[in-house]
Write a structure and sequence with these properties.
Radius of gyration: 16 Å
CATH class of the largest domain: Alpha Beta
Number of helices: 6
CATH architecture of the largest domain: 2-Layer Sandwich
Order of helices and strands: HHEHHEHH
Structural class: mainly alpha
Oligomer: single chain
Number of strands: 2
Strand content: under 5%
CATH superfamily of the largest domain: Ribonuclease H-like superfamily/Ribonuclease H
């Protein structure tokens, strides 16, 4: 899933986004099989987000700080940045569209 926002300054919007995903809706009735991997950004590790994840029975993968080299998605982000940069988006709408195209 690709989500784009410039408004997330705290954990609440990410909690809202997670609440709207199928995982949250099914976790109450079925054993959780998803494991959420996120970086150690403060909004992901805030007290409110940690409490929200626990309350909603969401498993998270423990992740060392400052370790992008261990995260396979970083390779994909790097490749996406190269391809999108080569297309030279001239505004945010083009940037978002080019990301979705790729």
């Amino acid at each position: 899933m690709l989500n784009s926002t410039t408004k997330w300054k705290s954990g609440e919007p990410s909690q809202e986004w997670l609440a709207n995903q199928n995982y949250s809706k099914s976790a109450a009735t079925t054993p959780p099989t998803w494991i959420l991997q996120q970086d150690n950004d403060p909004k992901h590790t805030s007290k409110s987000t940690s409490e929200w994840l626990k309350k909603n029975k969401m498993k998270t993968l423990e992740w060392p700080s400052q370790s992008p080299d261990l995260n396979p998605i970083e390779v994909l982000w790097h490749d996406l940045k190269k391809v999108v940069h080569a297309r030279k988006p001239s505004n945010v709408a083009e940037l978002q569209q080019f990301c979705k195209d790729e």
